[in-house]
Amino acid sequence: MRIDTIMKRRNTLSFEVFPPKPEMDADLSGITNTLSALRVASPDFVSVTYGAGGNNRPRALDIANIVVSLGMSPLSHLTAVGYTKDETDRVLGSLGELGVENILALRGDIPVGMDRDDERHWRDFQCARDLSRHVMGHGRFCIGGAAYPEGHQESASPEADIEFMKDKVDAGTTFFITQLFFDNDRFKKFADRANASGVGAPIIAGIMPVFKARQIRRIVEISGCSVPEKLNALLDRYLDDDASMKEAGIDYAAEQISDLWDEGFGVHVYTMNKSKGVLEILRRCGFLDKDNLDKDKNDGGATK
Ligand code: FAD
N or C: where does the chain have the smaller number of CB atoms within 10 Å of the terminal CB? Predict the structure, then answer.
């Protein structure tokens, strides 16, 4: 189903998965099992990442196909970096044939070694806005975009970031999913600023559960997102104790999600292709209660 259609009625709960490396999951049976397990939460959609300039495109398409075959709606990521207009059109054609209705239009992370000035990689789409406009031209997809509660690394100021969001909306983007964050207050202030500036599209909160302290320390270093004191203390305490970190991380994510959901935001969980911990988080939030699974019956109003 189109995400913009769902969002007119209520907030969305969704997951992100990524194509596993062939040497880890050659026949995609691992990711198929993960997706089958996650289905119990009745997600509104499942997003499938796509490496800018990488070689995982066929696997991303295969995973979108698995999502469809399991009766869930895929949101396929597409990147501007590394793909020409013709290549993008071919992929959009294949996705349309699979029944994919939702596209996350991204600039893409620039792969190591790729030169920002290399004309080959930037010929057709310079940024997510350009790709969004092109996908809109196909006339058959609901389009989402990326948003950054704590600012994109390349952006000159928080105000510039919001202006880019408005450009994307003008180019057909109808909702945003944020980069991961651990500080709900910062996210809410960002959403307020975006709304006040007239972005006018719902912003879905991207939540990454903390299962391993060292992994999160690395991700924080790359993304530059802030870590509240409470989480920082947990990361220090459980740096070498994965079992305790996972238990505390499940609690932390459940608190984050419950707070955001209660305030009227949709939630997108970065699953890192793990189902067990993610489902435990949702159980603690009450999302797996029978009454809550039929979300259309519990229509609480449109997403913020
Ligand atoms: P843009 O919106 O194009 O913004 C990037 C920068 O481009 C801006 O800071 C600005 O400097 C410039 N810019 C933007 N608009 C304009 C404009 N109108 N005029 C001039 N300059 C402009 N990466 C992947 O490779 N694959 C994925 O599957 C993937 N999934 C993601 C999912 C989510 C939810 C998020 C938040 C990010 C994801 N990323 C993914 C990472 C993303 O590609 C990078 O953060 C990338 O650096 C920026 O992408 P963007 O779509 O936000 O780009």
Answer: N
Residue 162's nearest CA partner among 141, 137, 142, 145 is: 145
d(CA 156, CA 301): 35
DSSP string for residues in 211-235: --HHHHHHHHHHH-----HHHHHHH
Q: Is the CB of 52 under 6 A from ligand 1?
A: yes
In this structure, the strands spanning 13-17 and 45-48 are: parallel
Active site residue 280: no
Read off the pLDDT of each residue in 277-300 and give the average, rounded to a whole number: 83
For residue 136 the two structure tokens come to 């809109």
Residue ID of nearest Cα to ligand 1 atom 8? 155
Q: Could you give the CA distance from residue 48 to residue 72 in angstroms, rounded to a whole number? A: 12
**CA-wise closest residue to 130 among 176, 81, 92, 175:** 81
Query: Which stretches does DSSP call E strand in the chain?
Result: 13-17, 45-48, 74-79, 102-106, 142-147, 173-178, 203-207, 267-270
- DSSP secondary structure letter of residue 196: H
**Of 216, 278, 268, 270, residue with least CA distance to 242:** 216
Distance separating the N- and C-terminal Cα atoms of the chain:
19
Residue whose CA is closest, atom 21 of ligand 1? 127
Residue 287 Cα to ligand 1 midpoint, Å, equals 31
**What type of residue is 173?**
T
pLDDT band per the 50, 70, 90 thresholds, residue 298: low
Give the tokens for residue 81: 């970096």
Say whether pLDDT at 88 is over 90. Answer: yes
Closest ligand 1 atom, residue 177 Cα? 34
- For residue 57, name the pLDDT band (cuts at 50, 70, 90): confident
DSSP code for 128: H
C-alpha to C-alpha distance for 145 and 279, rounded to whole angstroms = 26
The residue among 152, 151, 216, 145 whose CA lies nearest residue 189 is 151
Average pLDDT value over all residues in the chain:
92
